[in-house]
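ok here's the first one, seq then struct tokens
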Amino acid sequence: MINIDIISGFLGAGKTTFANMLLRCYISSGLRPVYIVNEFGQTGLDAQIIRADGFDAVEIEGGCICCTLKDDIAAAITEVIDAFSPTNIVFEPSGIFIFDNFSEILKQPGIREKCRLGNVITVVDSVNFSLSKATYGSFIYNQIKNAGIILLSKLEKTKYNTEELICDIKNINPDVFIISKIWSEWDNDDFAVLQGPKTVPRMEHHAHHHDNLRSFTIKPEKPFTQDAIDRFLACCRSGVFGGLYRVKGIVMTEAHPVLLNIAMRDVSLEKHKGISEPTLTFIGQMVNEKAIVNYFELWPERICPL
């Protein structure tokens, strides 16, 4: 049977980073994993990142498995089985995923005979946990409640009291297994937990509404200087682009492509390994598409009306 691991977590929690780590672990153990990602925005960025590191990846864009893409996910799983004959599938749903409908996918003909639920992992962003819980608590609650394993991300960046964070998580899911270790310090014993016997959590149903969450994608045509990046980040923080929870994409600098990730208060910039056209996706409440388009037309000044 093929184990299908689910790696959930709110927008920008670190799901793709951990998926990369897990795929490496499986390959080093002689397994044949394939990565499937369901992205809320119109971009295949996460799959591009995984492919740039040499893994097989399939993306499903432009929606949410919980609402409109159940048939697409089922078709993708079937196609992956036929094309790659994997031993493991690592499935990363969008950040606004809830678990209600995934069990139905596993019951479909052609899947139920070949697949079973593996690890059910939720990545909890230790930097943005309080803010994201206050803003989109229903998604955070559902993902934690239905997890078998919780991984705390960004512990090297957080000022949050880890014991308080674990207590908050245990109040939601008293039985969940929590790993609170900086990811760069993981060793084989940590990954052994994920390859051991599976404890499948009892899925709890929950109302699913995200009508006020929108995404918008744009392709910046000009390279960024460091000054332009600083201005852009200031503009994102100012609220002129709307209530942003996530900005992700690839921008060109004068030297090389850069992978930009903004998750609420957390910002990261790193050199991108792959070859991709510049793309930025904005996710949030009342995303101001006109302001974003106008901003990128103001070249080279890129003035932000703070």
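and now the second one, same deal
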Amino acid sequence: MNLHISDDSFARALGSESVEFALKTHGIEPIRTGSFGLAWLEPVVQIRNSDHRLISEFTKVSVEDVPAIVELLNSTQKQGNGDPPTSNPAELSVSSHPFYTKQHRLVFDRAGVCPPLQLPSFTLLENLLDQDPNQIIAGMETSWLRGRGGAGFPAFIKWRTVADTPADQKYVVCNADEGDSGTFSDRMLMEGDPFKLIEGMIIAGYATGATQGFIYLRSEYPVAKEYLDRALEIAYTEKLLGKNVLNSNFSFDIEVLIGAGAYICGEETSLLESLEGKRGQIKVKPPVPAIAGLFEKPTLVHNVISLAAVPGIFEIGPEAYAQLGVGKSTGTMPFQISGNVKQGGLIELPFGHTVNELVYNYGSGTASGRPVRTVQIGGPLGAYLSESEFDTPLTYEAMAEIGAGIGHGGLVVFDDTVNLKEQAEYAFEFCEIESCGKCTPCRIGSVRGKEALRQFSSNNVDARTLVVIEELCEVMEKASLCQMGGMTPIPVRSAIQKFPEDFIPEQ
């Protein structure tokens, strides 16, 4: 029998390290795992047999629960692989909770179940390394995987461009600078199953002809760095990385580099500038990074989930993957729900489910018990949805029709006490703080927008104020060099158009 304890950032924030220390004082060395994604139930402790079959589990574990866990573990070991009664009420069970059992997990299939540093089978990778790289890119086209970082651009186009661009050196760069509010899927994957990301990067490198990979990791993710570093050490020891990967003719290296906390470095050209040791600023495109990226060499840039989705595509087959979801929104998406919600966490589902399903069927409504007023989707520069839009399918196309986007899959829930004028002001302020400063519309427009919205609080407002705000939004949208300034109008406009009552001057 083995005792598993979740060890990702969710669990550590809720006291898992103290629980682990208490278990060790009883002579028990628990096995660390990632999170299942049911954040409100962390820390999770499970008793599993040698085949990882679940025997019993505890949720919301505190140091006070340790004696009961030790007693149950000892009695279970005496009984062998029997099935003693679960140690939690059914509604607190992770393995049988509808939040978990109703998901369709391809990217996060091993997260929480297996230890993050347990080397999985790489039979699939060995088979792919025997194929013609063009066959793999063709499979990517059939799957129609779209980038999970926000833009939803078809991945195979990037892959084919890098592969077809002649160069003496090509790169694969993983954008792990997950900075959007309400998003944590990248972090969870790196902390719970880093080998999934490593395998995806190797496949991408082989298909495109790249021999060097970089993971650009945000500095606020120390636990992810800890697991990535150890996973890379194991990968090199087991010949998964380095010269002649898995005894093939392909060589590939991966290095982790730490960002300095700039939100703008989540944009690919700014990220590449930072990787080169320069100030993280936007570069004008073209050329696109796939033709002239890192050190002016062809560079494939994807976020963590985009690369981690690749093994699953070839495990089930590109055709089967394309059948998941709706239309050109194929495959599964790890949605993340947070904010004023009773049950926050990660929910991996095929595209096509609705906001209502995520908020009520999975999130169980607001934590405050008050009515849901709005949900912001797509990070701090995403749209605020009205209640009438909650039944819109979560697909790239359906979201675009209502002026919103999937983004990185983050949904932040607000109850009826939220003030949308304050949220719109925050969008401008966020852009002001995080702008790289290179272009005037973003650098100056964000400041002027914030000042205009503050007039509503000072009662120094007239009919032209909203006109000025709309004109600022139009300039930022059309003239900003990147999406930082170009997308700031999205939350502002959605707040004004859908919740006009919040923009009536105070009396």
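notes on #2: The chain has four domains: 2-101, 123-322, 324-415, 420-502. DSSP finds 22 helices and 15 strands in the chain.
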